[in-house]
Amino acid sequence: MTDHVTQTPRRRMLRPRVLVPMASAIVAAVAIGYFLRAPSPVGHWDSAEGEAEFDSAYNAAFSSMPEPADTMDIRTDFGFVRVYRFEGTGDAEPMMLLPGTASSTPVWAGNMPSLLRIADVYALDLLGEPGRSVQSSPITSTEDEAAWLAETIAALPEDSVNLVGLSLGGWTAANLAIRHPQHVRTLTLIDPVQTFDGIPVETILRAIPATVPWMPKAGRDAFNSYTAGGIEVEDVPVADMIESGMHHYAMKKPQPSRITEGQLSDLPMPVLAIIAGRSVMHDPETASATAKRSLGTGAVRVYEDASHAVTGEYPDEVAADIGEFITRR
């Protein structure tokens, strides 16, 4: 596979059907919050009313998703993991999508039409975070994070998948590939955090007003706009769902450790890295250089004009890169 850089002559306005994945910007805010909290035994809702509010927002956001062919709650040693299966029209092996932290399955709504032309798609809600997955035992290490996901995939008919992770979902996917490579046919990492570079100090500082539940909504909006390249962030169902989860769910997991270049170089499966050229979740030049050193130049796609909300800004282009990648393998 040859290295290429995806560029556009000008910043494109988000199309109406892509407004839902625009909440990827909020995923970035929550990803920072992930690093600012103290660990404790098990994630939980702050009240029955808070859970009900989130549940209503989740249903509204999920209405933009295709109808799932199957809905599963898979038992693991750490709790039940909600997994949806969507039937595709392509003949590639199935994909599994991992969202950014606190965003849950509906964050992929704008990407589903193009991804389903490639293959069947599994999508899950990360365990220990707001969503339909239910944590029952403490997650205390990166090994635990890999274990619950490995148990989830092992329960599927395929036993291994083309794994696709966005933001913190990218870190989660890479962490699994390092520790349980038998479950990963191919690995696609979309602007992952803590994988090719650390989070800049400026981004951490800007995130504080967005990640404290009692701070005004204006603080979250300002940070969301910052992560999305300065565009105006509109209220959409997925954004409402994410904000409700941020406000009412206490995540109690350890901070994800930085993945090393050695770990990336030793991955046995094919890997595709998609880097957003205007991302604020890492330094894009540093991240792309790290990815090229550890994975090879042919494994890296740089979307020069994209923010961290790359899946919402370029859904068809991202799907085309993923489709070409997994079908050639």
UniProtKB/TrEMBL annotation:
Pfam families found in the cross-reference section: Abhydrolase_1 (PF00561)
GO cellular component: membrane
TM segment ranges: 18-36
Acyltransferase recorded as keyword: no
Domain AB hydrolase-1 intervals: 94-215
Any one GO MF annotation of this record: monoacylglycerol lipase activity
Domain of life: Bacteria
InterPro entries, per the entry: AB_hydrolase_1, AB_hydrolase_fold, AB_hydrolase_sf
Gene Ontology biological process terms in this record: acylglycerol catabolic process
Keywords associated with the record: Membrane, Transmembrane, Transmembrane helix
UniProt name for this protein: Pimeloyl-ACP methyl ester carboxylesterase
Organism: Brevibacterium sandarakinum
